[in-house]
Amino acid sequence: MSIHPFVLLITAAVLLWQNRLQPVDQDQLPGSGNRAALFASGLMFLLAAVLTIISEFAPDIAADQDFNQFVGLMEQLAVYAALPLMVINGLAKALGYDWDRGIWGRILLAICAMFALTRTTEWLDYWLMLVLAAGVITFALPIIKRQDWNFTAIVLFWLALCIGYLGLDLRSSLGSSGQHWSWLGLTLLPYVICSNRWLSLTASR
Q1: pLDDT tens digits, residue range 75-103?
Q2: Which of 24-38, 115-129, 186-200 has the lowest mean pLDDT?
Q3: Nearest C-alpha neighbor of 2 from the set 173, 146, 160, 134
Q4: Which of 55, 81, 142, 186 reaches 20 to 30 Å from 156, CA-CA?
């Protein structure tokens, strides 16, 4: 049994809870669209982690071809859709933008289209590297704009994750329990920690 999927399970559950759906009368409040995007990301992360854990604890179920295909799909969605959506959402909040759910839905469709176009080429790796670079910019912006040095540790942590990504071969490791799940789970930590700071310290546009 591997503990790596549990790292993602825990961080995804926290992200999901932080951005849980609000009552109807609060649905139009500032930040609701951004929270909906993070809720969607957290849900994809959580489902991927749960399915991976099920495949470890229930080998009979994991032997089913349809189940394996579904697990593979959710793993790919977690890495190549949920992660970019979360990073783009963080960048938008760091820049002070508060977009509605319709815009975030179109952004998610564009992310999925990018994955479909690049999944069989080397550009898929470049796309994910670009996403990680956007994360560096995201956490550097509060330091540049507001001299908020509390984000220094977050920037260094994200840079360490970027370096860690270079040692992972996500294409070959997806579908097996490995360190990539811990790496993916750790990418959620800065967004769990910093989400409320962005919403409170930036002006919505």
Answers
A1: 889 999 999 999 999 999 888 888 988 99
A2: 24-38
A3: 173
A4: 81
Alpha-carbon span 170 to 141, nearest angstrom: 28
Q: Which two tokens stand for residue 88?
A: 């783009």
Phi and psi at residue 174, in whole multiples of 5°?
A: -60, 135
**How far is 137 from 162, CA to CA, in rounded Å?**
12
Read off the pLDDT of residues 131-156 as tens digits, 9 standing for 90 and up: 999 999 999 998 998 888 888 999 99
Calculate ∠ Cα 174-66-3, nearest 5°: 40
Which two structure tokens, joined as six digits, stand for 26? Answer: 């609060």
Cα four-point dihedral sign 53, 58, 59, 62: negative
Burial 94-131 (b: 16+ CB within 10 A, else e): beebbbebeebeebbeebeebbeebeeeeebeebbeeb
